[in-house]
Amino acid sequence: MARGGKSKSKNLQTGEIQNLAEMFRLLGDPTRLRIVLACSTRDLSVGDIAETLELSQSLVSHHLRLLRAGRILRAERHGRHVFYGAADDHIRHVIADMVEHVAEAHSHTRAKTAA
Amino acid sequence: MARGGKSKSKNLQTGEIQNLAEMFRLLGDPTRLRIVLACSTRDLSVGDIAETLELSQSLVSHHLRLLRAGRILRAERHGRHVFYGAADDHIRHVIADMVEHVAEAHSHTRAKTAA
DNA sequence: CAAATATATGAAGAGGTATTCATATATTGA
DNA sequence: TCAATATATGAATACCTCTTCATATATTTG
Fold it and tell me: Which residue has its C-alpha nearest to nucleotide D26's C1'?
């Protein structure tokens, strides 16, 4: 308990901050975020992701590698297809939260791009 | 709420995805994340942030500008000092969530490295 | 085996970004 | 006013990352 519980302490170790930043960084690219959102609810094959999002197979594969390495997505092979999905419920929860928050933020954010 | 409630819909518009990714991107740099964490609970002056985190005043100021522009932090002037803090409760909530999640993730970090 | 399909990977270029250094702009007080 | 303090900003640069193109590696089927 020297490191604080789950109440209000925000004192993270250097390594944890690096981890957290790395996760944010991975979600911080629009293309990667679209990929994560696309297969966070149901698993999708690489080809399906590429087709759905209208991205090249190569680009999708490159991004999937990073997302796998960052433990955001996990891969599962079925025959010649590889299906990708959220790494765990924790990730699913985080994503759902963010989506919800962004929706809320948007509802009372008047300024910005609209015109 | 125009489309989709706060239930399970994850269908974001292109603009919303851009916004969300931009927010993640801003939090995705370790230095910036440290700055945000430092002043997300209580407001801090630029000098205090620099001293606390052992960063140059210039670097802190550059990052603060980005965080302000991204509506993650807000600035408030008092005399010759400028205090920075979380832009709103929404931001505070998001950060608290992520911190909590990263802590949990860390506790059972041994997922499958399977390929 | 070879062919067809699905995915992964290496190299390379274009563009972006974090950091530093120097300097500019407030703000207060004598 | 000038000096001192606090913050902001511009330019330069070294580094990193996204994307594309070409090619390699699996996997199933004939």
Answer: A80
